[in-house]
Amino acid sequence: MTTQQPQVSQTKSFMTVSLIELWERFGYYGMQALIVYFMIERLGFEDSRANLVWGACAALIYVSPAIGGWIGDKVLGTKRTMLLGSMVLALGYALMTIPSENTWVLFSALGVVVVGNGLFKPNAGNLVRKIYEGDDSKIDSAFTIYYMAVNVGSTFSMLLTPWIKDYVNQQYGNHFGWHAAFAVCCVGLLVGMANFFVMRKALSKYGSEPDHKPVDVQKLIFVLLGSIVAVGISALILEYQTLARIFVYVAGFVVLGIFIHLIRSSEKHERAGLIAALVLIIQTVFFFIFYQQMSTSLALFALRNVDLNFNVFGMHLMTWSPGQFQALNPIWIMLLSPILALIYTKAGKNNKDLSIAGKFALGFAVVAVGFFIYGFAGNFAVNGKTTSWVMIAGYAAYSLGELLVSGLGLAMIARYAPERMGGFMMGAYYVACGISQYLGGVVANFASIPQGMTDPLQTLPIYTSLFNKLGLAAVLCTFIALAVLPLMRRLDRQHQSIKK
Questions:
Q1: How many domains does the structure of the chain reveal?
Q2: Which of 328, 290, 346 shows the shortest CA–CA distance to 476?
Q3: How far apart are CA 116 and CA 105, in angstroms?
Q4: Which of 296, 443, 451, 499 is most buried as measured by Cβ atoms within 10 A of its Cβ?
Q5: 118: Cβ–Cβ under 8 A, 6 or more apart, which residues?
Q6: What is the CATH number of the domain that holds 106?
Q7: pLDDT confidence of 461, banded at 50, 70, 90?
Q8: Is 3 inside a domain boundary?
């Protein structure tokens, strides 16, 4: 019994973090499923502006954890900052329920979401790292299951919010459905916070140093005031695309500069791990350019060039809303995550586990297959519409690639980053993701459809051309990842020998 008790406690602690993460992702992805459509269909944006606004917002959402991780590590505490972030996120989604065509209402609400995510995201991941500190095989497995929990929340919200939008619009007019759907995202955060309060004792022994001290009211006020300023800055960046470009690129250079400084000034035994983390983070930047297509070019492809009916041998099964196709991503991840986690655990026990760098290379290859499926689908389209089953097949490959790359991104930080840099390294990882999210919006604009072009026969070749080019780009990334494998093996051996 005594040997089992620590493991039970560890599992319950992990579940506590996973469940609040699940509900946070419920809110975020419920909003993501609709946001580009909302800007185009409700606010009248052109494709190019909607793609770049959402790309800039996604970039800010991923960049903001660089500060949130530091606040969790040094100012308020990991657990407190995570909970504060969930409260701010709930407020952001509540603001999106305001039925207004004023773009500043949307941009202000998204600014609140940016700040809330920055406070929440790095600290949730850092808590999982603390729970499984020192056990590399368990960290890989835990973060894969953690990634599956994330996708449980996103699946339900991506299926639910487009349906609510359509239903309410049909019943009460063509405006209220959008805002009713965003209200559901807010409710998800409230449920997540209630669940955390019920289970919070399971995390009593985990957290950063400030978590174990009384709340410093002055620091809390400072964080809240800073958050209000950050909301205003974020809204300005979303309105003015020149500011967005400047901010994203400057953030990238600053983090890269800090990273290089840390490598040069770190202890000798930390250096190999930091270099390995930097190489993998750079690869992650390329992956998330592909990932951002899900909510931009692929979402608009589903709107304009996909038959929304699922048919088998001529028999109609069901009809989906265009936004619901994004739920295929988390559905596939839930199906594939347990299988990969089992493979990782068994391979680790037999000392045959593929390195994270090797998994990254395999992930890019699978993503390439996914985009080629979308690209070739145009050859079998009827009147400019591809079958909905193409989306299922493409998302299967796309999601497996995501699990191999993005699903292990946090595990990579947990494995290679020194503990004293945990919060910053989580933040640096998300900054890299943010830069690529914005670049993904830029790439999506290569398939931007001019306003007034509604013929599927005209829009189809624009999308398929982009998807084929993205497939070729993913093949190139695969070869680059394979080329750096010898370097990564050497760095990993150095890192592991020092840890022992």
A1: 1
A2: 290
A3: 17
A4: 296
A5: 61, 63, 64, 65, 66, 67, 68, 85, 230
A6: 1.20.1250.20
A7: very high
A8: no
